[in-house]
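User: Before I run my own analysis I want an independent prediction to cross-check against. Here's the chain; please return only the structure tokens and, at the end, one sentence I can use as a sanity check.
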Amino acid sequence: MKIPGRWTDIYLTKPESVHRPFRRVVVSSKISKKAVVRNLLKRRLRQILKEVLKQETYLASLNIAIVSKLGISAISFQELKKDVIKLFEKIRPPAS
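Assistant: Structure tokens:
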């Protein structure tokens, strides 16, 4: 399942039964030619993902890939965090 956002797209799939779920963060060289910038964005996205996984236990059994979009390097950490958290809220299962 693809969840499109303003700065990132999130892809979710069910893992095969014999494998552990994986977490991937993709920041391509189209975002920035400088490795320093790409690595900074990866660290930010991994930290946000780590915080989301602590709060949302239903995500623990899914493969998650976060793919960045153009323009992501111009925004602050707080804006990025709000955007990613809003995307994960779209898939939250209904409370029972």
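Sanity check: The chain has a mean pLDDT of 90.
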